[in-house]
Please model this.
Amino acid sequence: MRALLAAGATVAKSQPIEGHPFVIKLLAHGVIDAQDLKALGRVLNRKVTVKKGQDIIVQSYEYKTLDFVESGFGFRYTLLHKGGRQIINAVLPGDIVGFPASFFERSIFSVMAATTMTLHRISFDAFTGLCRERTNIAIALISYAAREASVYAHHLVRAGRRSPLERVAHGLLEMHFRLKAVGCASADAFELPYSQESIADAIGLSAPHVNRMFSELKRQGLIATKNHDIQILDKAALQILAEFEPSYLERTSLPRRQTKPAQR
Model:
C-alpha cells in the first residue's frame, strides 16, 4: 500500500460489484452463486485509481493485497541486473494484481500501470477469510491459478520456439481472446495501449523488429491498425500463422455444486 500511495494513486468510493470484469469471468464459468457474489461485494469495499506509468507492486518488497482490475491495462515485469526488462504478461480487466505476489514474503516481480487503472482492493488476510467462508471463491482462485500457469507455459513456448512474426500474431490473438472474454473487445477488434517497446519486452524482440512484424501482418492483410486500435481482418489465417489454439485460455474443469437427487 505504501508503494502504491507513493506512486500517486487515489482512493475512490467503491461501486456495486455487479458488472465487474472479474465477476463476469467467474460467472461465465458457473463458479459463484448469488450468496458468493454478495460476500465478494462486501469485502471489495475500496476502489483505487492508479495513474499511467506508476508501479503498483515493486519487486522484492512485501505486498499483502489483492487488487481486482476493473478497467485499464498494466503488465507484470522483472528488471535484470544490467538494466534489461522482461515483461512477464499483460494485466487486463478481470485480472488480479497481487497474484501470486501476495503469497510470498516478498514480491517476485513488479506490476506497472500501462494506462490509468481502476482496481477493487482487498487485503490478503480478508480474501483468505472470504475463501474459508465461501468455498466457491476458493475454487475460483484455483481456476485462476491454473489458467495463469497455462498462460506462462505458452509464453515460454512463444519466446523459445516461434518466429518473430508468429510471436506477434500469437500475442495479438491472446490479447483479443482475453479482452473479449470479459466484454472489453468486439468480435474482431480491440484496444492495444502498449508501446512497441513494451510489446518487445514481452516477446523477446527489439522495438524496431516489432514494428516490422506489425507492418508485415498489415501487408499480408491479416490486421489493420489505427492509433492503439487493432482490427483483425482474417482471423482464421492469423490463427494458422500463429498456431493459436485458445484452449489454454478457456474454462477449467471445476467441480459443480451437487444437485439433490430427483424424487422417485
In short: Residues 1-8, 256-264 have pLDDT under 50 and may be disordered. The first helix runs from residue 2 to 6.
